[in-house]
Amino acid sequence: MTQSELFQFTLGLDDPELEDDERLRFATRLLPELRQVDEVARADRTEAVTSLEGAKGYATLVGWLTADVSAKNIVGFLAWIASRFADTPVKVKVKVGDREVELESDKLQDPEATALKLLAALKGESGA
């Protein structure tokens, strides 16, 4: 992993009882704010390859957002997530290349330690 490599963070509310419209409101409110975070290189709605037979292209996942963050900005971005979602259950997936790690908001209280665990897990050394 290089310092310039982008980490893809996927964020969404971790509450199985929420309806799609509630998830959509969350993403609609958060996206402009996420785009203003200095540590974020790019932010947008999360897309997934459609798996329906005969379907082409991408479909937007309701209520999920993706942010690209460089390695040098991970600690600052995790600090923003921890402060922004201190009382909200949020699930964060982080992807670099073909490696993926999942975090939950209650585990983000120490952004620097979380970043080190995240980097170690993405390198295949230990779980986050």
Gyration radius (Cα, Å) is 15 Å
Strand content: 25-35%
Termini gap? 17 Å
Characterize the overall form: globular
Biggest sheet descriptor: 5 strands, antiparallel
User: How many domains comprise the coordinates?
Assistant: 1
Low-pLDDT stretches are: none
Strand order in the sheet with the most strands: 2-3-1-4-5
CATH class bucket: Alpha Beta
Descriptors:
3 helices, 5 strands, globular, 128 residues
Structure description:
There is one protein chain. The two termini are 17 Å apart. The chain has one domain: Alpha-Beta Plaits, CATH 3.30.70. The longest helix has 17 residues, at 20-36. Helix 2 (74-84) crosses helix 3. By secondary structure, the chain is an alpha+beta fold. It has helices spanning 20-36, 74-84, 111-122, and strands at 6-13, 40-49, 58-70, 90-96, 99-104. The mean pLDDT is 80. A five-stranded antiparallel beta sheet has the order 2-3-1-4-5. The protein is built from three helices and five strands. The protein is globular and about 35 Å long.
Offer a quick outline of the entry.
With 128 residues, this protein is α+β, with helices and mostly antiparallel strands. The chain is 31% helix and 34% strand.
Which SSEs are present, and which pair or pack?
Layout: E1 6-13, H1 20-36, E2 40-49, E3 58-70, H2 74-84, E4 90-96, E5 99-104, H3 111-122
Helix pairs in contact: 2-3
